[in-house]
Amino acid sequence: MNSVNKTLYIPLYGKSYVSKKGLFLDDKKAEEIWDAEGFSLKGKSKSKWLAYYMGIRSAVFDEWVKQQTSSAPNSIVIHIGCGMDSRVIRVGLKNHKWYDVDFSEVIEERKRYYTETDNYKMIAGDVRDGDWLTAIDENKSAIVIMEGVSMYLTVDEMQNLADSLCSHFENLILLVDAYSSFAAKMSKRRNPINDVGVTEVYGIDTPQTYQTENLAFVKEHTMIPKKYMEELKGFERFIFANLYAGNLSKKLYRLYEYQKK
To answer: Which of 123, 151, 231, 261 is the most buried (most CB within 10 A)?
Structure first.
């Protein structure tokens, strides 16, 4: 795998770690894959604090998807940059069709652990072009999530992706986490993704930056809800609150919701 694809092991480790500790997520699939792969992480990428953050971030995305699928029963779900994530299992398919999308070598690896069904498909493709959307027949309504992906795309690439999605679907809602420009600059030296060879990332300073003629910013979401942070105890909660839930964190990393106009 190239360096960007290898970043998938960082959140995989985090979700496996918190699941084994009984925090935030019940993710037996992450535990299974992490134990089987035995990928070696080092430095900050294997920090328990980062694992807590990855676990909470995934729980926030899961919660949002559950809310959206409940209110939009006829929508499909698209997880862009799925990596080895088991959100489709954690959230559950119900009556929704679900598409997991990532680079071909990631999907090839993913198929060792996940099986396609009538309602669950994996699509190999580069989201920076719109070709992968031809694999999706549905065009009415889509719930799209991008967790830990936007920072690897330029603003133009994100806007092109938005245009492709808006052109394909009549209705669209998107949840995406994003670095600030400051965080992108800091990442050249202090980001755990450096441990797997990634040095080039991108950030934005306003959520409107990702808007297009057809895609509008709706609202900002809380990255670290209090209910999840309260699962930590004593000193760990204090340290985590200062590292990942304080004012500095808000200057680095945000969570935005968009909708087709």
So the answer is: 151
In tens, the pLDDT along 85-113 reads 999 999 998 889 999 999 999 999 999 99
Domain total in the chain = 1
Residue 22: CATH number of its domain: 3.40.50.150
Burial class (CB in 10 A: 0-12, 13-18, 19+), 187: buried
Q: Report how far residue 188's alpha carbon sits from residue 118's, in angstroms, rounded to the nearest whole number.
A: 42
Question: Coil, strand or helix: which one is 59?
Answer: helix
Residue 239, domain extent: 3-260
Nearest alpha-carbon partner for 98 in 124, 125, 69 = 69
Looking up tokens 């089987």, which residue turns up?
Answer: 36
Query: pTM higher than 0.90, yes or no?
Result: yes
